[in-house]
Design a protein that fits this description.
mainly alpha, 2 domains, 434 Repressor (Amino-terminal Domain), two-stranded antiparallel sheet, 8 helices, 2% strand, single chain, 164 residues
Length: 164
């Protein structure tokens, strides 16, 4: 009797998060529909993951996806930032139009400005792969937000109304 052993293929290195999901799903012979049902999601969400347009937002969903793909969370999300796999030593531009963002600050309300400032500070603090240029642009944005906030506080103390 001849015994045929199937050896599991090894996942190629350097895959983005989405390509990891697709590769493993196909290895397990799961359709997007079947994987989605296991996770309580719609098929389109799995497609979004596989095309690197989205990632699971909650820790619970990240764990459920890894379990459904029979992977550890570390293996599924290893070296990924958002939906893009990166080498942590290589800076990656984040592709924001900072000029357009800075122009929009003057039209933003107070809470929006605080949210933008918080988001930019988060990026500076927790994103190790920003380019030096992106870091400078983010610093400029924070400075501009602070200027707009000071200008509005000063105008409000003087009783003047600033249109948005």
């Amino acid at each position: 009797m001849i015994e045929i052993l199937e050896k599991a293929a090894e996942m190629p290195e350097g895959l983005t998060f989405g390509k990891r999901v697709r590769w493993k799903r196909q290895e397990l012979k799961l359709s997007q529909e079947k994987l989605a049902r296991r996770l309580g999601l719609c098929r389109e969400t799995i497609g979004e993951y596989e095309h690197d347009r989205s990632v699971p937002r909650t820790t619970e969903m990240k764990q459920k996806l890894a379990a459904a793909l029979e992977m550890s969370c570390d293996d599924l999300y290893d070296n990924t930032v958002g939906a893009v796999a990166v080498n942590p030593k290589e800076p990656v531009g984040i592709g924001l139009n900072f000029g357009q963002l800075r122009r929009s600050f003057k039209k933003s309300g107070g809470q929006q400005l605080r949210d933008w400032k918080r988001m930019f500070k988060y990026l500076l603090t927790y994103t190790e792969t920003l380019t030096d240029e992106d870091r400078r642009e983010i610093d400029r944005c924070i400075g501009e937000i602070i200027s707009v906030q000071k200008e509005r506080r000063k105008a409000n103390r003087g009783g003047a109304h600033i249109s948005r």
